[in-house]
Design a protein that fits this description.
This is ATP-dependent DNA helicase. Residues 28-38 have a biased composition (Basic and acidic residues). It is elongated, with a radius of gyration of 46 Å. Helix 1 (9-65) packs parallel to helix 3, helix 7 crosses helix 9 and helix 17 (402-416) runs parallel beside helix 18. It is mainly α. The chain has helices at residues 9-65, 95-101, 107-114, 146-151, 157-167, 179-182, 224-235, 242-245, 256-262, 270-282, 285-299, 304-315, 317-327, 336-354, 372-381, 386-396, 402-416, 433-448; strands at residues 69-71, 79-81, 102-103, 126-129, 183-186, 191-194, 199-200, 208-209, 213-216, 247-248, 251-252.
Length: 449
Amino acid sequence: MPPIRRSNLGRRTRNATNQANYRSNRTAQERDDGNERERIRISQTREARARHSTNNRASLNRAAFGYDVSIDYSNYQCVVIGSTNSVCSHNSNDEVTQYQMGRYVSSNEAVWRIFSLPIHERHPSVVHLAVHLENGQRVYFTAQNAVQRAAQPPSTTLTSFFETCQNDDFAQTLLYSEMLKYYTWNQSSRRFIRRKQGKPVPGYTDVYSTNAIGRIYSVHPSNDECFYLRLLLVNVRGPTSFQQLRTVDGELCGSYREACQRLQLLENDAHWDQTLNDAVISSHAHQIRTLFSIIISTCFPSNPIDLWIKYKDYMCDDILYQIRNRMGNPNIQISEEIYNEALISIEDMCLIMSNKLLIQLGLTAPNHPMHDAFNQELHRERLYDLNTLKELIQTNLPLLNEQQNITNEAATRVLQSRVYFYFIVKIDLIENKFNRSLAASLLDRVIKQ
């Protein structure tokens, strides 16, 4: 048989297939390379645009603030004003440094500052006005100018207001709080000067008004005289001095409170009168005194003397009863001594409540020595048995140690110089017998003196 000749069809088919696959793979590779080049080109374009935008923003900030600016908007969204070496890092925990060195400045704020537009404003202007008693203003001084400041204290808005009212007819028509509407306060010269701009005031030449506000400092009612001084300043026009402010109908009042009463600036005491009137019906005398002490210490009635005169008999019932029992005489009547005892009791409660004496609260002072409480303690110490003290001294004084002898000798020198320091100590409570002997020795010498 003749040999079988193989066909080249299969080989050509395979070659064609391989060539087609090669061309397809090459096309895909070229396409991928083209896409990669396109991505690189787009990325480079974006980076260039970002650098351009950053440079523009940095130029704005540099022009606005005159500082060297380092910024990375893409990562930190903040501007670092200052050294180029300073960076707002997310890893930094120094909050103080971040606050001082880091600040965000938007494009709107940068342009606003470039054109020097106003950042903030206050309208209308408000000026605080001082309020103090005569020669009661705050003065700052050094060792060099202390004498000069004491002789000539600096002016305040209040003292300058008095001076302006003395020399300016228009100022005499104003209240203290209205001064800033027509005058400016010159901080350097410390005096009021008429305004040169504003709305002209009819009937007065060179007087202009604005909407400026003067605010008088508030004063707590416990600071009574200063409180009533402020009340007068709010209601009296054109005072020329502290004395003139206390003058009512040509008569100089003894206090600012009295001036307020005569000008009828204080409320009447009808409410407190009714309160005490209800209390006397069913309350004990001690309870009435306590209520009266609370009223005059914390409620500040306009005329506490009238309340005292009206209800003092009810406040003294228990004291009168005690004196009748002590003296064995039921016919004893209320006297000034009994009223004085009630006033002392009321004053003691007022000292506990408000740390003020009755004379500071508008009542008459009770008639008792200034150091009555101390004298009572000293009287109690004098009740010790002197013979017992002497025996205690003779027994234990030779047993004192060196330090205790030094203390004893120092105390002896003080007593001999007649410069006394009294320490009220209950000897029975001293546990150490040697210290008890030393205290007894000192007490014996004090008693002899």
